[in-house]
Automatic annotation (TrEMBL):
<dbReference type="GO" id="GO:0015031">
    <property type="term" value="P:protein transport"/>
</dbReference>
<keyword id="KW-0472">Membrane</keyword>
<keyword id="KW-0636">Prenylation</keyword>
<keyword id="KW-0449">Lipoprotein</keyword>
<dbReference type="GO" id="GO:0046872">
    <property type="term" value="F:metal ion binding"/>
</dbReference>
<keyword id="KW-0460">Magnesium</keyword>
<keyword id="KW-0547">Nucleotide-binding</keyword>
<dbReference type="GO" id="GO:0048731">
    <property type="term" value="P:system development"/>
</dbReference>
<keyword id="KW-1003">Cell membrane</keyword>
<keyword id="KW-0967">Endosome</keyword>
<dbReference type="GO" id="GO:0010008">
    <property type="term" value="C:endosome membrane"/>
</dbReference>
<keyword id="KW-0342">GTP-binding</keyword>
<dbReference type="GO" id="GO:0030670">
    <property type="term" value="C:phagocytic vesicle membrane"/>
</dbReference>
<dbReference type="GO" id="GO:0005776">
    <property type="term" value="C:autophagosome"/>
</dbReference>
<dbReference type="InterPro" id="IPR027417">
    <property type="entry name" value="P-loop_NTPase"/>
</dbReference>
<keyword id="KW-0378">Hydrolase</keyword>
<keyword id="KW-0217">Developmental protein</keyword>
Length: 241
């Protein structure tokens, strides 16, 4: 255990193209993982959406804060702000959308420009539609190798390998956090990505119920009252026993 009175929170951003008429599966992946549901009727994310789930990895309690970002250019300013403070990233493309695949390198550059060295995975979604695929396996594997990223093939519809994506990112963040703790408290507090260590009573060692982002910005981890009332079940159903 890191410490008896601590648990870990990990901010994960899901990134990829967003074009009218094309659904990559970022939103449905997060909904599937947090709420265990799948529907074809998701609307495009406008700006940023947020869900969370609590899991246990390597005997550590992990609070995953999953941020679904819009893929349209007009929301670049909003999504850039969302990247700051992220500690892990999921780059998503669809097996049926060639443009989403070709845009992956650009999306990775945008994320790295804001948060530098964090765990990132490459996810090919919609493996249930391989008959309609416009991307060869060799191409996807070559891109993952070129970018030096862990590569997952998922089907949100069939719930294939979705949990593995977030478990891997949680493990990688734990490794990094434990390394920082081993190097001393100053290493943790001087880290550029400061969301991460929380007291079990609910307060953050970096400020009660808040986390510091790059540039001194502060983001409140609790949803506002309107969002809580509207999506009460969404947040409650994300916690695992």
């Amino acid at each position: 255990m890191l410490e008896e009175d601590m648990k870990v929170a990990v901010k994960v951003v899901a990134v990829g193209n967003g074009v009218i008429g094309i659904i990559l599966g970022k939103s449905s992946m997060i909904q599937r993982y947090c709420k265990g549901i799948f529907t074809k009727d998701y609307e495009k994310t406008i700006g940023v959406d947020f869900l969370q789930r609590q899991i246990q990895v390597n005997n550590e309690d992990i609070r995953l804060m999953l941020w679904d970002t819009a893929g349209q250019d007009e929301f670049d300013a909003i999504t850039k702000a969302c990247y700051r403070g992220a500690q892990a990233c999921v780059l998503v493309f669809s097996t049926t959308d060639r443009e989403s695949f070709e845009a992956i390198s650009s999306w990775r550059e945008k994320v790295v420009a804001e948060v530098a060295d964090i765990p990132i995975v490459l996810v090919l979604n919609k493996t249930d539609l391989l008959d309609d695929s416009c991307i060869k396996n060799e191409e996807a594997e070559a891109l993952a190798k070129k970018l030096k990223l862990r590569f997952y093939r998922t089907s949100v519809k069939k719930d294939l390998h979705v949990s593995e994506v977030f478990k891997y990112l949680s493990e990688k963040h734990l490794q990094k956090l434990k390394q920082q703790i081993a190097e001393g408290p100053e290493s943790v507090h001087s880290s550029s990505n400061k969301i991460g260590v929380f007291s079990a009573s609910g307060g953050s060692h970096l400020g009660q119920n808040s986390s510091t982002l790059h540039g001194g910005d502060v983001i409140n981890l609790r949803p506002n009252k309107q969002r809580t009332k509207k999506n009460r079940n969404a947040f409650s159903s994300c916690s695992m026993p």
